[in-house]
Amino acid sequence: MNIEYFHASKFGNGAMVAEEFKKQMRAMGVSVAVHHVRDMNGKEPATADVYVFSSPGRFGRPIGRMRRFLAELELPVGTRYGILTTEILPKPDKDTGWLPAEDELAKSQRVRPLMNEVLQHKGFVKIAEEKIYVTRLKGPPEDGWQKKVQDFAADIAPAPTAVSPS
């Protein structure tokens, strides 16, 4: 199995997550090529079994470079993909101290839904999705982010094949 991983890291958090994903997949015997979208052309991506896309949020949306890359991306209908984003950690309300509920966050944090919308409109098939929170604008990632990447990698990895007794 081989994977092409495209990220649009601005402050290095997405690049760090991509490298952790590559390390996790290598341990499972899977080849991963990591690319920053600024260096890639969506009309000529390398052939892969799965594509992974990662973008930080900007005003609740994928950053412009990733949006443009996804818009020009040309892959066959049925292409399998995963999304692994870096998003700002939600802050508690200043008055109540409560964290916003998931449905409240979904109104302003639309990175993954917007990426999915573009990819599914092209006929691609999502196989995994996860978000890694960053604690401040420039990072670092949340505690335990490596475990989230490991779980995402497990969702992407091929199921082990059973060996039939001879």
By helix and strand content, what is the structural category?
A: alpha/beta
Give helix % range. 25-40%
Q: Biggest β-sheet: count, sense, barrel?
A: 5 strands, parallel
Q: Specify the CATH class.
A: Alpha Beta
What does the radius of gyration come to? 17 Å
Q: What's the CATH topology name?
A: Rossmann fold
The portion of residues forming beta strands comes to 15-25%
Number of strands: 7
Helix/strand order, N-terminal first = EHEEEEHEHHEH
Mean pLDDT: 87
Report the CATH superfamily: Flavodoxin domain
Q: How many domains is the backbone divided into? A: 1
Give the N-to-C terminal Cα separation: 26 Å
pLDDT below 50 for ≥5 consecutive residues: which ranges? Answer: none
Tell the overall outline: globular
Output the strand order for the largest sheet: 2-1-3-6-7
Using the 3D structure, state the CATH architecture. 3-Layer(aba) Sandwich
Number of helices: 5
What would you say this structure looks like, in words?
It is globular, with a radius of gyration of 17 Å. The chain starts with a strand and ends in a 10-residue tail after the last helix. Helix content is about 35%, strand content about 25%. Helix 1 (about 15-25) crosses helix 5. The model has no long low-confidence stretch (mean pLDDT about 85). It has one domain (about 1-155): 3-Layer(aba) Sandwich (Rossmann fold), CATH 3.40.50. It has a 5-stranded parallel sheet, with helices on both faces. Strands 4-5 form a two-stranded antiparallel ribbon. The longest helix is centred in the first third of the chain and has 15 residues, at about 15-25. It is built from 5 helices and 7 strands. With about 170 residues, it is of the alpha/beta class.
